[in-house]
## 1
Amino acid sequence: MKNLNLSGCGTALVTPFRDGEVDYAAFSALVDRQIAAGIHFLVPLGTTGETPCLSDEERIRLLEITVEKCAGRPVVVGGGTNSLVQTVRSIRLLDPYGADAFLIVVPYYNKPTQEGIYEYFKAVADVAGKPVVMYNVPSRTGVNMTAETALRLAEIENIVAVKEASGNYAQISEIIRNAPEGFSVLSGNDDETLSLMATGAAGVISVASNIAPGMMVEMVEAMQDNDLPKARALHHRLSPLFRNCFVESNPVPVKAGLAAMGLAMEEYRLPLVPGTRKTYELMRKTVEDLGLL
């Protein structure tokens, strides 16, 4: 299964809402916009998609729409929880609907040991039946998956990649340096994409590409082509977007930016609420400065 070679820019898709319901028309239009921009793969039902607040039926339909429109591009669907039983249930729920891989987060809240993380992902891989992408994001989970643990897991046949959002450059560099053939390391932070790709990462799972998919694709492809001057210029141009997408909890700022562009409502499900007026105005200016208004 290591033949699923994830590389380039993948978008961690938002889930738009209208009047308390999933806005499937807006979601479909957002996916179309991603594809028109040349995005390399798509990631529905992740953190950015407010997945814990979605019903099973909503999750299935969002995945169906993504797969229907992707035209051969890989789809990596979020399926992780902090319980092996519930993660297996999620995998079995979503498995029939055409995703190419599952994105599975390090279990949050429980704070497992490294051996617990290893055994958890090993058990997930045993039942997944598809490639698995691990997701390390200590700022949300409360625990870091070390390079040693990630590399042990990378030896399992159908664990094909890690989305690394630890912010620990030395740790991520060690994974890149020692990863087995066919295993991809993907940046989980937009602002680290250039530096990690320069070190050998395969790409990024991006939040910012919800707003600027074309420029993110250009930057990543410039790195793939070893055109550092072009990639550096795009990185600096996009840096305010990278920063401002996290002035409040993701996806609050990115949805504010999409609302300013007329692409989605600034609507959420509790416990998330709309951002401050200051955040909206900041995101509006950010997208305006990028020429997207």
## 2
Amino acid sequence: MIVALNFAPELTGIGKYVGEMTEYLTSSGFDVRVITAPPYYPEWRVGEGYSATAWRKECRHAATVFRCPLYVPKRRSGLHRIVHLASFALSSLPVIFWQAIRWRPEVIWVVEPTLGYVPASWLAGRLVRARLWLHVQDFEVDAAFGLGLVRSGFARRIAQAVESWLMRRFDRVTSISGSMVARLASKRVPAHKLGELPNWVDVQRIRPVSRENPLRAELGIPADRLVLLYSGNMGEKQGLEMIVEAARSLADHASLLFLMCGEGVARARIEKLAAGLPNMRFMPLQPLERLNELLSLSDIHLLPQRAGIEDLVLPSKLTGILASARPVVAAAPADSDLAQAAAAGGLVVAPGDANAFAAALKTLCADATLRERLGAQGRAYAVARWDRQTVLGKFCEDLNAVM
């Protein structure tokens, strides 16, 4: 039984990975049920054909899926976000217990964020003697305080104590990178429970193709124009202001186009910052079947990130970026997991340093041979470490061992 706020058909972030994992598990012979919310991310509106107020049952990827009501706020202030998360914790609670008691799963697999439904999942698992697996995609508690979304020192101590207590009660606790597993250890999760389950990429679907593909033609981008692409969630963790500053400093380079593709809470603000820049363009998130075209029309990928959250999150988009065999310019501390992975297929600068970011872009734009070499290195890195079949095959082995 999988409990996750985000699930297919969401195209980015956690929902994408939980959907792909479910598909792999059912195709490998596992009987899977999913308790989730209606799709809403990254647009922050409930998808067409779904309801924010009703429970419903459906079949997806050969799994039984239960959708629970969810409050999706138009304004994403701290209070609205808390109500948003609490709404799913409450609406999913009876379904978690109903399915656990009626169906009696062997394993309950829970993904954080969010922490809100972790207590119910843990208690339901203990009632039916299921094995309990917590997978941390994002340290939401630490990130909330690190980004200043919540400032109370007392609240921080309480939240972190509760989080640590809950984590230690699970039979298996994993995260997506080495530094994030180390942070789990710092929360006093016993070493024998810890493991790494990285995000993956389908290297057959995301593969090198010509930059002169149909999507570039549809967008009317000339062949002689270099595309500097940011694709994915446009949130506050990404530090997208750096891209706007770089575009402004390179505005006199007519051959460059900064292309911003995606949705998110920060998009309107970033569009306002970029108003009037002739070398910057925004477009909506593209469907999954066009993802390879989108990644491949890029000449250089852009991957900024705010300082201070390097061991709290690892951008999931990096797997597809490197698999596309296009170089990346990333902003990350030199000793972070993001920097080490991005350096395999690109250039890395310090977070917040817009001048260094623009200088790295100029270096790559001026050297097609370097772009090609770094792109090939990145592709090899992605195939070796993040191949979907390899990662999920190992996960199935671990799941059988837990069972």
## 3
Amino acid sequence: MADFTFPLPDVGEGLTEAEIVSWHVKPGDPIAVNQVVCEIETAKSLVELPSPFSGVVKELLVAEGDTVQVGSPIISVTGEGADEPAAPDTGVTEAVSDTTASVSSEGDSGKVANLVGYGAGDDHATSRRRRYARATPAEAPAMAPSAPVSAPVAQAMPIIAKPPIRKLAKDLGVDLASVLPTGVAGEILREDVVRQAEQATVFKNIETPAWPENREDRIPVKGVRKAIANAMVKSMFSAPHVSVFVDVDATRTMDFVKRLKASPDFAGIKVSPLLVMVKAMIWAVQRNPTVNSTWTDEEILVHHYVNLGVAAATPRGLIVPNVKEAHTLSLRELAMALEKLTVTARDGKTTPEEMSGGTITITNLGSFGVDTGTPILNPGEVTIVALGTIKPKPWIVEGEVRSRMVTTVAASFDHRVVDGDVASRFVADVASVMEEPALLLD
């Protein structure tokens, strides 16, 4: 029997530290090869670490909430086979591909055997931090939820909804007065209620808690929040931003989405206006390739492929995973890829590899009921597009004022690469597809 020490591995992209979020084992527990022992949070994602060997947990060397350097020992295990510790299966638990853990075993000879990857560093200091340090030691009182608050939306017409729709709204806790109707006669449809319910879940103040007794919270700037802050500062103050806006009649897009939802080919697949917007961007990129570039100081790299990033708001903060080779996907394949990306991000399983190599990004402000904004470029890219909320507005059609489903498309560009005429043509191309999505038919 010998004692094995498992150092924190580099889970990809040269990361130097990670926080121990939770332990899945405790001293005395038997563990097997590839069994998940803990979950760590890096600046990129949450990653589950599998054990590279079997045995019995001797000691947890790092507490939950500690931030440790790569190479620092985090757990010791008593087991057999010290001379040939098993390499971890990094494909398990959606960990980063091509990651190799380093494991050392120390016997009576004092020699340390290392697996491929890295050796133990000289400085294994840990910095102990609480995840959220309160300004006062008093515990905050239990949150007392109040009645749900729905975003008020003015409606000029009475509420028109069939009994099943009214029951659905009641079951989902949706106030029909806050729902934007998309029916031909101004009636509220099932998808309108479902969309309102889904949008409501992204807001933090649907249930308003009581004020806590402590006056301030202290949240350490680390992990994803630190990475976001550094990336935004670098992007904003290194790339000269310029933004372009256009209002779009998206009525045909909404009709197109309804037809896709009813199509057997899209059964069980989430379809939304974002799908049309993404496809429109890919089409517009092909017509205006310089918007899909990277600035390197020495040269401009124009990418003739699209790894399309989608800004995702998650409990851990804003992340931008991307759909690889999005330009090669059919509309159905793209819908499936977007759904997988969203679910993975929401579950905190997005890997660093899935957030690297992006060429252009979209952010969906409309999911928060926002009309438009001036998005900041994802570092390394020269274009980001924002889709605003789609809602009924008066619009002139053939000389008459009619109610149409209108949205605003906004885009920011790196002016070192993208000139005003190219930026304008690109946004106009995106808008033309939103106005007539039949251009997207494969």
## 4
Amino acid sequence: MYQRDLGATEKGSPGIREMVLNMGPQHPATHGVLRIILKLDGETVVDLDCDIGYLHRGVEKICENRPYTHIEPYFDRLDYVAGVSNNLVYIEAVEKLAGIEVPPRAQYIRVILTELQRIASHLLWLGTHAMDIGAVTIFLYAFREREEVLNIFENYFGARLTTNALRIGGLFYDTYPGFEEQVREFCRIFPERLNEYETILNENRIWLGRTVGVGVLTAEEAKELSVTGPVLRGSGVKWDIRKAFPYEVYDELDWEVPVGENGDTYDRYLVRMEEMRQSRHIILQALDRLPQGPILGKVPKMIRPPVGEVYHSIESPKGELGVYLVSNGTSFPERLRIRPPSQINLQALRKMAIGHMVADVIALIGSIDIVLGEVDR
């Protein structure tokens, strides 16, 4: 930490003292190994810069030296609290590049698993975001329901966090005995639990004081910064990849895209809460329409997509997650590039934070919902 006096020649306002302060890269406050360089006037943020890369592992270059069939496990280590979504975007990109069709049953199961993952990711966001602001009870409540989703994942994938059961052309496993009953039971109890969260938070004056009007991002600013997901929708922009460019069977299901009005931290909270309700609605429809049949399409023993390139994206819990693939006709990708929503959305932090207090920066990081495994890769 250091500080210096700024004279009238530099700032135009003699007597102002600017202090440069490091926040991070310790994990708890910054949701990962993120270092934020804050410029402060007292406790007011004058400017900030994000220093990333502490978790960089060179995933994209590693994947270029692996066969297509060996790459999936690298993806669920990106946003490691939304492994199913990360697996899905890669698998779908290869299927699009290679022209592989997926059986309907596999598509419906993928949707169920992906929406369960969205709920689990949002619950982790809610618990940690609320704890950042001082609402510890919500952390305990949210993890109670998240455990139920992870129990389903453990039964299906054999893992709770790093999940690898999606396959190019479909799935490796069909549903286990009792899968539908377990998912329906979770969907039955979940609305009441969401109401519990909102009873504690929605009109809590401390919560409102820390979120309403804090970190306002207008629709124009959000689009200029290329943010996506709940951060964009919280600013009133009705944009969701599942609606704009439907994949799997989302265009066959009935659901709404929630949006905010003011673009502040409170609106981003409300959007994610409603998204969990919509995910539950999607899951129940998919269960009702789940067809019988195979779970794996016709896939060659060696995946060698024709020479060409493809960009494919999905709506992950954090926003638009995209994969750019280039094929040279071999079983190894020529180029693989990832568009991570956490990294793109993190650009908005500076715009949100200037003029607010140091304590608000913590709330704003939580409202963006970042994972550094995806930011740094």
